[in-house]
Each structure stands twice: as structure tokens, then as C-alpha cells.
Design a protein that fits this description.
Number of domains: 3
Shape: globular
CATH topology of the largest domain: Alkaline Phosphatase, subunit A
Strand order of the largest sheet: 7-6-5-4-8-1-9-10-2-11
Distance between the termini: 46 Å
Structural class: alpha/beta
Order of helices and strands: HEHEEHHHEEEEHEHHHHEHEEEHHEEEEH
Number of strands: 16
Number of helices: 14
Largest sheet: 10 strands, mixed
Helix content: 25-40%
CATH architecture of the largest domain: 3-Layer(aba) Sandwich
């Protein structure tokens, strides 16, 4: 039997490569309390999940979760940047309350988190993949995390405090490690909560070598506002995340020519030239076979102006979507394992991202803003025992809701200091919004001056409107009618025809800030971000 199990597990691990093969595994017998698998990719835009948007890519495995569960259409991040978002999720509290306001912060691991509360209730907890909170993980029986941001190929991990190597593409490796933990390490007598955190598709969007040819012949339609001039939006005008101006040819777009003739001025060229040093000779050969012809054609064409801008967009989209394809394939591997082991029906599976991401809208990449592409995040939850298959919910949810939701379903009392709300009433009612549900999602971003130059700001998002205040070295208000202007092109703050609605939103913003105890939103008494992350190590 032992040999049979080892053989089965090896076969399952093999499925994380490009050619997926179905395998059998031993049935795990006995009924247990609900398990939780929380899958979070880094910077995965809702636009590139076909359950949300079919323009760019098909994601059949993520779509399966949506088809067998619930898809949230108004799910929002509280602070659209990696570390702060993760802290909000772990604690169920907004950034000002959990103390992790920006990526220069260090997470206070002594504070209350939902994994710790689940541990106390008898759950076995594990975190595998990207952590990115500077301090060591706490509240986990098992941890195997990437160092800092992690790298795409042959990444080192920190396993229970000790550095260990890995071999292969990071998305495959993280999936393999997660399955290994469930198969060989997890105490089968306990329910488990597994946090499976992918590095992908974080910048620089390095695809698996087997996916390099995907989308090579695809030309993606430019977003309607690709050439946005940011009229009436000062903060948007001053940001530095433009595909045209700020996306680095070498670092972001892989134009590291062997002749060393392509140079950039962003300060990222050297990092771009060295980022594939972790690859094996075989991986480098496959990489060069794909990118070298693109590099030579690029040098020959001598693009400029709009031609260069649109070439950069196409190159960005192809690489990003190749990485998404790998994510989706690995979700399929995981689902296959859960199905074969009998774990699928008794496990709540969540798929989300740590925030949204720009796919060229407003000619941008990255996140950070309260604008829709950044604030809105994918959220799909599958749990057949409580959720009707194929449900859709427009209830306003936030990532601070995840902690109380997991605790609620696990039968653990939700502490009164948690600021999020359990989504259980929504999930058990086919996604319908309860009558007493929140009216607005709250947002607060702090990291400025820093990378990408996104001004500090806060605001609320209701079903139909958005109100934003930019502060610190600026004092600007923006307001958007999300029904009439979903692309957020027309700032209507101060417009006479919206005076009544503006007054209502200003009052709601004040009430929301009081509810979450954000008592110094303009940082007049205490400045929370005091350093430039670009000057700090391992951030």
C-alpha cells in the first residue's frame, strides 16, 4: 500500500507540467469538519478570468469553480497593494487597524489572525507560496514560503524557518508542494485550512517555457481609453505606471539582447538582464529560442510613437496571459487531486487575487489606485454544502470579509474587533444581498511618495457611485457615476446636477470612516508611511 501511495503521488505531481494526465489516489475515508483551501494569485485581474470577461483568455478550471459555486461581481480590496491586502485578509481589519499600511511595513505576527483562531478550534493550518509580509509567518502548523517577492524559476523557499531549494516553474512548484502537504504531511484526523498563494502573475510575467508560444499570433484590441489624457483627474495624470512611458523594455518585456544594444532609463535594465540567471541551461535554451527572434525583429523595426506604445501593449498582454494560462492549468491539477481523494465536496475552495490589475486601461499597468481595475478583485467560492452552483452575487464585499467568513463556516465565534462581515448570509442565500448589508466598500491607500507615484487617497464605492479624496501633497476630490461612466473618464465632483448625490456620499464616507475607526484619514496627526520602498531591501 505504501508503495502504491508513493507512486500515485508522484503521478499527481507530474500533472503540474504542461501535459496533464489523470491519475488515481486513495480515497480518504470518514467524515470531517469543513476544510478550507484559500487560493490567491498575485495581481490577477478579473478581466483575465473568462467567468468575468471572455475577451482575452479562457480559464476553464477557474470557471469550473464559478460554475459550481458563486461568483462575486462587486468584490473590492481595502488597499490595492500586495502586503497590505494580505494583512487585511489575515486579520479581517483595515490597514490602519492591523498596522500594515504599505509594503515598507513589517507585519506584526503577534496579533490575532484567522489561522490562529482556526488553530485553536482544532484546524491544522498551512501557508505555501508567496507570503510577502517581511516577518515570519505565525499561526501556521506548516509554512513553506517564497523569499520576498520570489522568482519564477527554481525559486528558494523558507520551509518552517529553513531555506530549501526548488526545481521548476514556480506555479507548478507551489501546486506540487500544496498537494504534497495534503497527501504526506497533513494530519488526516484534523480538518485543515491551506493558504495556497501563487507568485504569478506578478510583474515581470515570466511564462512557463511550455507556454511561450501561446497567443503569439493573437493581436489584442486596444482598450477604448488606451490613450487617456486624464483630463480633470490630476492624481491620475501624475502617476508613473504608463505602458508607454514607464514599462521597461528589458525588465518587463524581456528585450535583454545578447549584443547589449537595448538600454532603458527606468533603473530596471540590470535586473531585467539578470532575471533568468536562475534558469537551468535547458530552460534558458527554450527561453532564448522564443525571445531572441522577437528581440531581433524589434531592433530591426525601430518602432517609435504609437507603434512602439501598441507593440509594448501586445507584448505585455501575451506574457501576462501565458502566465494566467499556467495558473488555470494548475487549478485544474489541484481540483483533480481533491476529486480523486474525496476531499472536493467537503472543502470550501476560494479563488481570488490580492487586488485587481490594469490590462492597459487608461494606458496603465499595475494597481494601487481606487479606480475600478485596481479596487475590484475576482472572488469565487465553491462549497456545495452551502452554495448553490452557478450563483452570482452583486453584494458589496471586501477582502476584510474573508476572515470572518472562514471562521463563521468553521463554527468559530467571530471576534468583535474584526471589521469585516461574514459572507455566510450571502453564500447561503444564492448570492442575494441581505437587507441590512453594507452600502459601501471602504478604501485607503498610503504608499506615497514611492514606486509608481500614486497619491495617497481614500474613498467609498457604492453600487452605483464612487467618491475619492486624494491628499498629502494634493487636495483633490473625484466622483464617478459607475453606471453612466464605468470607465471612470469623467470626474463629476462639484457638478451641479450631482450635488444631492455628492452630499449623500460625503455623509456616507464620514459614517464609514467612523464605523471602521479611521479617525485620521488625512494623516494630519500621524503620518503612517514614512519611507520610500524603492530604497529598502527585500520589499
Amino acid at each position: 500500500m505504501k508503495k502504491e501511495l508513493l507512486f500515485t503521488f508522484s503521478a499527481l505531481i507530474a500533472t503540474t507540467s504542461c501535459n496533464i494526465k489523470k491519475t488515481d489516489s486513495e480515497q480518504i475515508a470518514g467524515k470531517k469538519p469543513m476544510n478550507i483551501i484559500y487560493i490567491m494569485s498575485d495581481d490577477h485581474s478579473y478581466q483575465t478570468i473568462s467567468a468575468y470577461d471572455k475577451r482575452f483568455i479562457q480559464t476553464p478550471n477557474i470557471d469550473r469553480l464559478a460554475n459550481e459555486g458563486v461568483r462575486f461581481t462587486n468584490s473590492f480590496v481595502a488597499n490595492s497593494i500586495s502586503g497590505p491586502s494580505r494583512a487585511c485578509i489575515l486579520t479581517g481589519k483595515h490597514s490602519h487597524a492591523n498596522g500594515f499600511t504599505d509594503n515598507s511595513s513589517t507585519f506584526d505576527g503577534s496579533q490575532q489572525t484567522y489561522p490562529k483562531l482556526l488553530q485553536k478550534a482544532g484546524y491544522e493550518t498551512a501557508i505555501i507560496g508567496k507570503w510577502h509580509l517581511t516577518s515570519a509567518p505565525t499561526g501556521f502548523d506548516y509554512s513553506e514560503i517564497l523569499i520576498g517577492q520570489g522568482i519564477y524559476y527554481n525559486a528558494p523557499f523558507i520551509k518552517n524557518g529553513k531555506q530549501v531549494p526548488s526545481k521548476g516553474y514556480v506555479t507548478n512548484v507551489i501546486t506540487e508542494k500544496a498537494i504534497d502537504w495534503m497527501e504526506n504531511i497533513h494530519d488526516k484526523n484534523k480538518p485543515f485550512c491551506l493558504l495556497l498563494h501563487h507568485k504569478a502573475p506578478h510583474r515581470t510575467w515570466m511564462p512557463d517555457t511550455c507556454d511561450l508560444q501561446l497567443f503569439s499570433d493573437t493581436t489584442f484590441e486596444l482598450p477604448a481609453n488606451f490613450y487617456d489624457d486624464y483630463n480633470g483627474r490630476q492624481a491620475a495624470h501624475e502617476q508613473k505606471m504608463s505602458i508607454i512611458k514607464d514599462m521597461d523594455l528589458v525588465y518587463d518585456l524581456k528585450m535583454a539582447d545578447k549584443e547589449n544594444e537595448i538600454h532603458t532609463t527606468t533603473g530596471l535594465e540590470n535586473a531585467g538582464r539578470s532575471m533568468y540567471n536562475s534558469m537551468t541551461p535547458e530552460e534558458k535554451a527554450a527561453w532564448d529560442a522564443h525571445y531572441d527572434p522577437i528581440i531581433q525583429k524589434f531592433k530591426k523595426d525601430k518602432l517609435s510613437g504609437k507603434q512602439l506604445s501598441e507593440w509594448k501593449y501586445q507584448q505585455y498582454m501575451r506574457d501576462y496571459l501565458r502566465v494566467i494560462h499556467s495558473i488555470d492549468r494548475n487549478i485544474g491539477v489541484l481540483l483533480n487531486y481533491l476529486e480523486k481523494t474525496g476531499l472536493l465536496e467537503n472543502t470550501m475552495i476560494v479563488y481570488t487575487s490580492d487586488q485587481g490589475f490594469y490590462m492597459g486601461e487608461h494606458v496603465r499597468f499595475d494597481k494601487r489606485f481606487m479606480y475600478e481595475e485596481c479596487q475590484r478583485m475576482p472572488l469565487i467560492i465553491r462549497y456545495p454544502k452551502a452554495i448553490k452552483a452557478g450563483s452570482t452575487s452583486n453584494a458589496i464585499s471586501m477582502n476584510v470579509d474573508f476572515a470572518p467568513t472562514f471562521l463563521d463556516f468553521a463554527g468559530v465565534e467571530v471576534p468583535s474587533d474584526i471589521q469585516g462581515a461574514s459572507l455566510k448570509p450571502v453564500l447561503e442565500n444564492e448570492g442575494k444581498t441581505p437587507a441590512d448589508w453594507r452600502k459601501a466598500a471602504y478604501y485607503h491607500y498610503y504608499e506615497y511618495p514611492a514606486e509608481h507615484s500614486v497619491k495617497r487617497h481614500y474613498g467609498i464605492r457604492t453600487q452605483d457611485f464612487k467618491l475619492i479624496h486624494f491628499y498629502n501633497d494634493i487636495d483633490e476630490w473625484e466622483m464617478y457615476d459607475m453606471k453612466a461612466d464605468p470607465r471612470e473618464m469623467n470626474n463629476i465632483f462639484g457638478k451641479a446636477e450631482y450635488a444631492k448625490k455628492q452630499k449623500e456620499l460625503m455623509q456616507l464616507l464620514e459614517e464609514t470612516q467612523k464605523q471602521y475607526k479611521d479617525n485620521d484619514p488625512d494623516e494630519k496627526e500621524t503620518v503612517l508611511f514614512k519611507g520610500d520602498r524603492r530604497l529598502m531591501e527585500n520589499r
